[in-house]
């Protein structure tokens, strides 16, 4: 089975690289962040305060987060409803990071992630893929970039969607989420010992992709 783990902080370019790599390999790409986002969204829809961990845990048994693959790539479903288009707001980003500190939430979502990787060849991106979800993955990358560069990338994304954002506010949001993600006790954001570190601050998308492809060829041979 092919297992490729791509971790790193927000806006580093993980999903851009992971998605294109999966496309070229003709295998699935799993965006695990979307699952934490969908969980946060479902809880928020129910009016649950995510800071109240006991209340979150009480809901977990009745929230099913699933992913589906089709023409539009990965779609994420909360109790059968496709929520993919509603989970990119700043509120849901923060909610995802806050809900992701709760071990019971992680165990539930990681189970789905590991079961998927047992069935299909996969490129997975997130925060704990190389360290916790797929510790035996043969290709692991830790992709990062300065917070200023990552904020700039997010700013340009919003701008392309016709929305003007304050770049300093975006950088603050990113720094705050990185802090929550790296400082949590259970499966924090961390580079795996056997992961290749890629600082993409001054790298274009194609350079990043080429670096990843080179490693995939080293490990798996002529698969793309
Ligand atoms: O998945 P992650 O949050 O790590 O980042 P992303 O969504 O893949 O990338 C954030 C934005 O940065 C996207 O709009 C990419 O097109 C852009 N990007 C870039 O400008 N240069 C790179 N080397 C990588 C991504
Ligand atoms: O796209 P971006 O990098 O901004 O975030 P994301 O990958 O969609 O992840 C949203 C949040 O989910 C992160 O800030 C983490 O708190 C959490 N997450 C996690 O804890 N573990 C993962 N494997 C993936 C995401």
From TrEMBL:
Transmembrane segments: none annotated. PANTHER family: CYTIDYLATE KINASE, CYTIDYLATE KINASE/PANTOATE-BETA-ALANINE LIGASE. Residues 4-217 form the Cytidylate kinase domain. Keywords: ATP-binding, Cytoplasm, Kinase, Nucleotide-binding, Transferase. It catalyses: dCMP + ATP = dCDP + ADP; CMP + ATP = CDP + ADP. InterPro entries: Cytidylate_kin, Cytidylate_kinase_dom, P-loop_NTPase. ATP binds at residues 8-16. It holds the Pfam family Cytidylate_kin. One of its GO terms (cellular component) is cytosol. GO terms for biological process: nucleobase-containing small molecule interconversion; pyrimidine nucleotide metabolic process. The gene is cmk. It is found in: Cytoplasm. It is an enzyme of class 2 (transferase). One of its GO terms (molecular function) is ATP binding. It comes from the Bacteria. Belongs to the cytidylate kinase family. Type 1 subfamily. This is Cytidylate kinase. Its EC number is 2.7.4.25.
